[in-house]
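Q: For a teaching handout, I want to show students what a protein-ligand complex looks like in token form. Below are the inputs, and the small molecule is manganese (II) ion. Please produce the holo structure.
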Amino acid sequence: MHTLFISDLHLSPAHPELTAAFRQFLRHQAIHADALYILGDLFDFWIDDKDPTDFAREIKAALKDVTSGGTPCYFIHGNRDFLVGKRFATETGVTLLEEHTVISLYGQRALIMHGDTLCLDDVRYLQFREKVHQPWRQALFRLLPFRIKQKIVSKIQTNVRQDKQNKSFEIMDVNQSEVQRVMNDQNVNLLIHGHTHRPDIHTYHSSDSKKVRIVLGDWGKEISVLTYDHLGQYHLDRQLITEYSDQ
Ligand code: LP5
Ligand code: MN
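A: Here is the structure, written as tokens, with manganese (II) ion included.
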């Protein structure tokens, strides 16, 4: 018995090999799990639940196969797919969760999130995030035709990419005080998140208890998956995408 966690796949039509690896992962691994949690940035950018492309259709169908097969699938928005909405959930059978959610993992309380909100030192990002999360901005954006939305996103992405290049490695990591604060607030000893693309398992001690923070890895040349089993054992696995696709 085990549960799987993934994040930061950044799927897009530009990388069909990633989409193929994701489909393979769903077909061969996810269906055998008790549950699959996708902790954000499944997509490079998700513009609209009504995305008419074959790419969107293919991903939705692959997720639907998993949920129809009896594996519950949960999704938390990332900074690149915060526009995934109810229609996507209905079409795929995936359950959308709040941005900070506490789950029970075989009796162990775990806080799960994308991880961007832990990066308190990245002030410019947080200001940007606040803007794009404003409901009125999103409502206006939704009204636009798909092609116009694609153009706007691509223009903003170019500006944002330039801004990101000027940031230090430290600024783009989680803020340790914030990590401790959210874990204390939620009364958990386990935190699982992605976003930083720095896969690792961090442990520290506080208030006489061992705290664990698991950071999921991004997908690119490798796929990255966290397996957590019913005995409370866990491992972060990485596998070269070329080897994975050959299986
Ligand atoms: O994802 P990753 O790891 O590459 O970088 C993130 C942060 N970047 C982002 C940007 C997304 O990748 C792409 C967003 C496209 C948005 C389209 C919006 C369409 C409208 C929606 C409806 C209203 O999230 C990056 C972090 C990094 O993680 C590490 O934490 O640093 O943040 C940035 O680089 C953000 C810049 O610092 C902010 C630059 C502002 C530029 C002004 C653009 C105009 C704003 C218009 C708002 C509507
Ligand atoms: Mn992210």
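A: Two things your students might notice: The CA atoms of residues 139 and 186 lie 31 Å apart. The mean pLDDT is 96.
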